[in-house]
Amino acid sequence: MTTAVFPAAPEFRSGTDAGRANHRFAAAARPLAAVTGAEIQAPLIQGGSARYANLDYGASAPALSVVSAYLNEILPYYASVHRGAGYASQISTSVYENARDIVRDFVGGRPDDSVIFTRNTTDSLNLLAGCLPLRDGRPAGEVLYLDIEHHANLLPWQNVPHRSVVAATTLAATVDRLRDELARGGISLLAVTGASNVTGEILPIRALAALAHEYGARIVVDAAQLAPHRRINIDADDVDYLAFSGHKLYAPFGAGVLVGRPDWLDAGTPHLAGGGAVKDARLDSVSWTTGPARHEGGSPNVLGAAALARATQMIADLDTGQWYAHEDAIRSFLVEGLRRINGVTVHQIFDDPAPAPSAGGDEPGAGTIGVVNFSVEGYDAGLVAAYLSAEHGIGLRDGRFCAHPLLKRLGLPAGSLRASFGLGSRLEDAERLLAGLQQLRQTGLGWDYVVDAGRWVPANDTRSYPHWAPNTPGTAGAAPCTVD
Ligand SMILES: Cc1ncc(COP(=O)(O)O)c(C=O)c1O
User: Fold this and answer.
1) Cα–Cα dist 274/146, whole Å
2) Which domains does the chain have, with CATH numbers?
């Protein structure tokens, strides 16, 4: 275990239960839910090991334990869906179709909303891009988006008529810019993130939905980051389409979802041409079906959809006050601690405080989810990430977060660091990060690092993976990193 050298807040003496119980960050003393892998040990470069501090939930969250238990329970009944008369097939079909209703309830969907299972948010947004309305065979309008978006909510729109808006330094002024652009007319869809994957700042989706509708456009919310952190109600907020990924929502089994109004989806280009998506196929022509099946050609990911639905049920049962307090305690502790370390800068997009989430009222920490972005003066982000991993057993993300336009505009063209957390996190994870950074500032790196295939890695790394994992850490990043 690494030694905590971060000067703890006066009311929080690190490492003592009594200290934790009595301070203002007590809500995060323990994880809020059990997740798989919570106690794995990460080998350290200087010898020994530390409990792996997973501060990378924003990339992919660990599975909830209830999700993995559920999968074990239903796995023996896994069989073909939709077309089988057998007992297991019928059970699998019911699990798959029921998952749609569970997910629809989770996001407060309208009864007639389509719930289409996809691979992930990227897939969902690409699917929607193929369903934009046409007039006389041509796109009926343009898609409007901000420059703060993840590539998943930016690149699909570049293939269709579009306009982009550079976000202002305040959220209020950014909304004004969107209003001006909508008022120019011709926008059919406003595509916006629910929460930034770079900084965690939440966008006011209810207000943006009202704005889009005022000018005759629809809205799609990229909820990849929002859904794991906040209650969403698309009916109450009048959101037309919502996309998110199972692997960020504690169900990493390959399913994502697009929920929304059926008319565009039923008329759009089938996302995956193939079995199950048709009413009738002839040798050189086809009549496509409507409903989710239109876009779900081929054998669906039954277990992925079931896992996603089970995760949403568990999250729906959370007490929102407790949920937000847990996350906000870790976030406040981390941000306050980072600001006290010389040479560490915390980054955000907007200068004005983000408003409360539409469905979250004024719960604590409502304006920012469990994502904190920062950089350390004098060090490449990738080097800091390699150091934190090798010397402290901490996993976090470095790079440009698939949001290149935003990082460039924030003056971070080479990238920054992102700590992100969720239901399985505890205050100690943030404490470990602060201790590691403090040590870096005070005594520097404790090991030599080299760039290998575009990534910083410890030199002469002899740590090994579990016997079933193919690579040693020194060769794991052999492919140049292209997913930053
Ligand atoms: C805000 C946001 N949108 C979209 C995506 C893409 O998600 P996926 O890789 O699951 O398609 C991500 C992933 O990081 C994200 O953070």
Assistant:
1) 34
2) 10-55+320-458 (3.90.1150.10), 66-316 (3.40.640.10)
User: What are the C-alpha distances in Å from 312 to residues 21, 67, 122, 163, 290?
Assistant: 29, 10, 19, 34, 26
pLDDT band at 151; cut points 50, 70, 90: very high
Q: Strand 53-54 to strand 138-139: parallel, antiparallel, or no bridges (unpaired)?
A: unpaired
- Reported as a pLDDT band with limits 50, 70 and 90, residue 472 is low
pLDDT, one tens digit per residue, over 72-109 is: 999 999 999 988 899 999 999 999 999 999 999 999 99
Helix 205-214 to helix 171-183 angle (10° resolution) is 20
- Pocket test of ligand 1: the residue of 245, 247, 396, 418 to mutate, having most ligand atoms within 8 Å of its CB, is 245
Atom of ligand 1 nearest to the CA of 196: 1
Q: What is the pLDDT of residues 32-66, one digit of tens each?
A: 999 999 999 999 999 999 999 999 999 999 999 99
Contact (Cβ atoms closer than 8 angstroms) between residue 308 and residue 253: yes
Q: Pull the structure tokens for residue 104.
A: 């629809």
pLDDT for position 185 = 98
Tokens of 38: 């919570």
Residue 123, token pair as written in the block: 């897939």
The number of the ligand 1 atom at minimal distance from the alpha carbon of 123 is 11
At position 64, the amino acid (one-letter code) is L
Q: Which helix (H) or strand (E) holds 50?
A: strand 49-51
Phi, psi of 131 (to 5 degrees): -120, 15
Q: What is the pTM of this model?
A: 0.94
In 184-233, which ranges are continuous DSSP H helix? Answer: 205-214
Over the stretch 186-204, which tens digit does the pLDDT of each residue have? 999 999 999 999 999 999 9
Enumerate residues 6+ apart whose C-beta is below 8 A from 388. 394, 396, 433, 436, 437
Residue ranges around ligand 1 (CB below 6 Å): 120-122, 150, 152-153, 193, 197, 222, 224-225, 245, 247
- Strand ranges (E), 210-338: 218-222, 241-245, 256-260, 278-281, 286-288
Indicate the top mutation candidate among 117, 121, 369 to test ligand 1's pocket, ranked by most ligand atoms within 8 A of CB.
Answer: 121
Nearest CA to 129 out of 275, 295, 256 is that of: 295
